[in-house]
TrEMBL record:
Pathway: Bacterial outer membrane biogenesis; LPS O-antigen biosynthesis. Coiled coil: none annotated. This is UDP-sulfoquinovose synthase. It holds the Pfam family Epimerase. Transmembrane segments: none annotated. Belongs to the NAD(P)-dependent epimerase/dehydratase family. Residues 3-292 form the NAD-dependent epimerase/dehydratase domain. It comes from the Bacteria.
Amino acid sequence: MRIAVLGGDGFVGWPTALHLSNLGHEVHIVDNLSRRWIDTELGVQSLTPMDSIQERCRIWHQETGRKIHFHLLNLATEYERLKSWLADERPEAVIHFAEQRAAPYSMKTDRHKVYTVNNNTNATHNLLAALVETGIDAHLIHLGTMGVYGYSSVGAPIPEGYLDVEIDTPTGKKAQQILYPTRPGSVYHMTKSLDQILFQFYAQNDGLRITDLHQGIVWGTHTDQTRRHEQLINRFDYDGDYGTVLNRFLIQAAIGYPLTVHGTGGQTRAFIHVQDSVRCIELALQDAPEAGDRVRIFNQMTETHRVRDLAEMIAKLTGAEVAYLPNPRKEADENDLIVKNDQFIALGLKPITLAEGLLSEVVDVAKKYAHRIDRSRVPAVSAWTKDIAKRVEHDPEGKRLRSVS
Ligand SMILES: NC(=O)c1ccc[n+]([C@@H]2O[C@H](COP(=O)([O-])OP(=O)(O)OC[C@H]3O[C@@H](n4cnc5c(N)ncnc54)[C@H](O)[C@@H]3O)[C@@H](O)[C@H]2O)c1
C-alpha cells in the first residue's frame, strides 16, 4: 500500500514509518521539521542523538534495501502544495501525526496557545479539504489522545469514542450514540477535541473514511526496527515540556534526579508502549471503515496507572528518590480511570505491559546518553494559569544559587 506518514520525523511517526516500510508498504514521510525547530527554540535536544531525516532514510535503505521518501511540507500553511502533493502521490492511506503535541508547550504563553491552535486545526482541516478536493479515497488515520475525554472520575468505563444516551422525545425515550463529551485539560487537548468535530463533519458530508485513535501516553523508545542500527534511533524527550510522565521518571532515575511527581501524584493516566503503538496503527490500517460510515474511534492504550504508583515502582527498581512538587497544571488531584480497549484486543493486539526488562532498557538508553542532558531543563515549569505560575518549583534539586540577603 502507498502510505503517507504525516509527522513521520517525530517520536511515534518515525518508528511507524519504519514499521510500515518493514511490512512492505511504500512509505512517504511528510513533515515540516517544526519539532526540530521547537527544540532550538527551547534550547533542548532529544536525549538520543538524532540524525537528519534524510540521513535516517538513507540508513534505512542501506540496512534493508527499502526506500522511505521524505517531503518537506507544512500542512498548516501550505494548502496548495499539500493539494498538489496528494494529487501527485495519491496515497491509499494517510496517517496523521503532524500536530504540536505537548500540553505544557501549548500552555507556555499566549503565543504558544495561538501557534498550537493554528497549527493543529489548520493542519487537520487542510488535509480534509484537500482529500475531498482531489477525490482521493485514502483511509485517514489520525492520532488523537485519551485526554479528549478529560480526567474526571465518572465511575463508568470510558467507551471507545461514542456514548450511549437516551433522550426524551414526545413519544418516549429514544436511544442514541453521541461523541463522548470532550473535557480538554489544555489548549493542546482542546485542538484534538476540535479535530473530532472536523472528522465527524467530513465523514458525514463527504464520505471520507476516517479512523481516530485516542492514544494514551506513549512510553519506551525502541521498536524492533529502531534497534537495527544506531542511526535509526528514535527521538526521546526528557525536558519539562515534551517529556511525558513515565519516560521522564525513567530518565530522571538514570541521571540521579528526583522523580518529579506533581501534586499528590493521584492522577491516573492511560499508557501504551511505542512498539504497541506502531502495531495498533498496522491493525487499524487493516480495518478501514467504508465510505458513509461514521468515524471509527479506538482507545489506543493498554493499561492505566496512578502517577505516584509509577514513581514508587521506579524508585524501588532503581533506588531513585521521589519529589512531590506543586502541580503546574490545573487538574484534579486524584482521579480514577477505567478505559475500554476491546476493539484492538479483538483485532489481535497482545499488550506489552510494564515489564521490568523494558523499563530497564529505557534506563540503559538514558544512561548511555546522560551526558546530553541539561538538568536545568528537566523541571516542568509551564503553568496553566498566572496564579499557578507563582507556585511552580523551578529547582527541585535545590542547586540554584540563593541570595544571602
Ligand atoms: N507521544 C505521546 O505520548 C502521544 C500520546 C497521545 C497522542 N499522541 C499524538 O501522536 C502524534 C505524534 O506524537 P509524537 O509524540 O510523535 O509527536 P512529535 O512532536 O514527536 O511529532 C510530531 C511531528 O509532526 C511534525 N509536524 C507538526 N506540525 C506540522 C505541520 N504543520 N506540518 C508538517 N509536519 C508537522 C513535527 O515536525 C514532528 O516531526 C501527535 O499528534 C500526538 O498528539 C502522542
